[in-house]
Amino acid sequence: MTDDQQKIKVLIADDHVLLRNALAGLIDNFQTCSVVFQAYNGLEVMKYLKSRSMPDIILLDLNMPEMDGYQTAQWIKKNLPDTKIIALSMYENDYAIIQMLKNGCHGYLLKNSEPLLLYTAFNEIKKYGYFSNDMVSDKLIHYIGDESALKKQQDQVNQLTEKE
Question: Engineered SS bond to 100: which of 31, 46, 105, 156, CB 3.0-4.6 Å?
Answer without folding.
Answer: 105
